[in-house]
Amino acid sequence: MKKYIYSFVFLFFTSFLLAQDSIQNESKASMNGTLDKQFDYVTQKSNNFQEYKVVKKDFLTILKRNSLDSVNRFKEELANLKIEYASHTSTINQLKNDLQKTQADLDKLTIAQDNVSFLGTPISKTNYNMIMWGIVSLLMLVVLVFLFQLNGAKSAAKDAKNNLDKLEENFEDYKRKALEKEQKLGRQLQDEINKHKKNTK
Question: Does a structural domain hold residue 149?
């Protein structure tokens, strides 16, 4: 009979321990979820006393520990997010500075591309083209005037040469006539001298 009692007591304690272990495992499993589920579980497993809820001390300890762990984790995540935010802010500021510098360089290149340095002064390509075509037109006009003047000078030189040739011909003709006249006068003078000599004899 004692064997049965011992067996019964052994089975009772074993089942009690297994039930306790099962309850603890169930409570541990339920106390490992989100804080919201843990609070719901604690409220569900709490006893009622008048308008109050009677909560096991172990549940409150676990809730406190889990809440503090969550708060500390959130604080750590918040600190990491602040560091990441500061890093992103620094990167954004650097990118803004780079963008401003790039924009300034682009503006300079645009101005340099649209402008040409002429006599040390930057002017737009349109004005530069107008000035260049104006200079080319002026030079062409000067060349045309020079060609007309050269043509006029050639014509004047040709006329002067023709006049000179005519003048030389006239001069040669005048010299020949003058020589003939001088010879004629010389003969006449000689004749007169001869006559005069004859008359004086």
Answer: yes
